[in-house]
Amino acid sequence: MEHNESRMRRIFSGVKPTGPIHLGNYLGALRNWVELQHQYESFFCIVDLHAITVSQDSQELAARTREIARLYIATGIDPKISTIFVQSDVSEHAELTWMLNCITRVGELERMTQFKDKARRQRESAGVGLFDYPVLMAADILLYQTDLVPVGEDQKQHLELTRDLAIRFNRDYGETFRVPDPFIPKVGARIMSLSDSTKKMSKSDESPNGCIELLDTAETVRRKFKRAVTDSGTEIKFDESRPAITNLLSIYQLLTGKQPEDVEAHFAGQGYAQLKNELADVTVEFLRPVQERVENISDQELDRILDDGRRRAQEIARQTLDDVKRRMGLQGALRARA
Ligand code: AMP
Ligand code: TRP
Questions:
Q1: Atom 13, ligand 2: residue with shortest CA distance
Q2: Ligand 1 pocket at CB < 6 A
């Protein structure tokens, strides 16, 4: 079986092209991908089939998909060692989703908190795609016999479902899928909105100042930090009971690579304005080279990288899907090979 061969361990992860990548995506996920790509065979996907679970403007979706690919590369994913590809380019994702649908229980999907949150207001009219979203995500991961999935905290429940489906399939049809582990960082797994520290930073933030996008101008970054909410009190310390300041300090810690004690020592005796100013400086410095690299990737180069990625991904996805079909008795044209 393919996954029993000795090979490098694999990671798989993705971002939905529903909006520009933000600091939460970077600190919770991408930053770790960049590190892990040197130890793992890596697959980084732009999950456009997940994006269409809510209505999208087609031109905008196509443009965003390419923008996210550029940002993967610009933040440090190296297409020479990692596979970067677009989900809808590899039709095996949709196909395996169907097979997995047939072993998934309605009750399991009804318990998914992300679905409950998203469908809360319009339960009857919510799309079936939104309901099935976690199964497509399981297919993404299982197709590549993934060992580790680096994501933010909000994806933990989806990962548990993925594991359950892999275990169930293996039990019913024989050892087919590797059962993946989540990789959720200790700091940064849940970056909060700058305008409401009870909500995670998100592309769909209602307040325009809550979310720092990786393509924001320096001026916008400064404005957003300036308007960021703070907590009562004046001390600048990591403290769970003061989530807004803790969030700002976590961002500072991650972008500077300093230890929490050093961050606190650095800001001892300073005011919130100083913290916000320095945070803006650090963020602008971080974004500058990223934005320059985005500008420097030509359309032609991007096409080549995504074509290459599609070929590499498809080769592995096909092997897994063939195995699944054979095990389920969906022989078809595979009959000769079975
Ligand atoms: P999405 O933008 O929902 O496609 O998320 C892409 C990746 O970013 C996933 O691994 C998420 O868990 C992660 N992520 C999204 N928002 C945040 C956040 N506010 N803090 C940390 N990680 C996040
Ligand atoms: N659902 C993930 C999110 O919203 C994106 C995603 C889709 C993903 N497929 C994946 C993440 C596979 C990791 C692995 O963040």
A1: 13
A2: 15-16, 24-25, 28-29, 151-152, 154-155, 189-191, 200-203
Pairwise CA distance, residues 228 & 152, whole Å: 22
Residue recorded with tokens 């700002």: 248
Residue 16: closest CA among 52, 55, 58: 52
Domain boundary residue among 294, 309, 325? 294
Does the residue 55 lie in any domain?
Answer: yes
Distance 237 CA to ligand 1 centre (A): 25
Q: How far is the CA of 259 from the centre of ligand 2 (A)?
A: 29
User: Do 130 and 154 lie in a common domain?
Assistant: yes
Distance from Cα 99 to the centre of ligand 2, integer Å: 19
Question: At residue 137, does pLDDT exceed 60?
Answer: yes
Given a contact cutoff of 8 angstroms between Cβ atoms, the answer to whether 84 and 73 are in contact is: yes
pLDDT at res. 117: 87
**Does some domain include residue 2?**
no
The answer on 59 and 157 residing in a single domain is yes
Q: pTM here? A: 0.95
Query: Residue 112's domain spans which residues?
Result: 10-189+298-337
Residue 5 has pLDDT above 80, yes or no: no
With respect to residue 317, please indicate whether it lies within any of the assigned structural domains.
Answer: yes
Query: Residue 275 belongs to a domain with what CATH number?
Result: 1.10.240.10
Q: How many domains in the chain? A: 2
> Which ligand has the minimum distance to the alpha carbon of residue 154?
1
Q: Is the pLDDT of residue 1 over 50?
A: no
16 in active site: no
User: 259: left (phi > 0), else alpha (psi -120 to 50), else beta?
Assistant: beta
Are 156 and 272 contained in the same domain? no
* Phi–psi pair at 282, nearest 5 degrees: -65, -40
Ligand 1 atom closest to the Cα of residue 13 is 10
Tokens of 336: 């000769």
Determine, yes or no, domain membership for 201: no
Ordered strands of the 82-86 beta sheet: 82-86, 41-46, 10-15, 148-150, 181-183
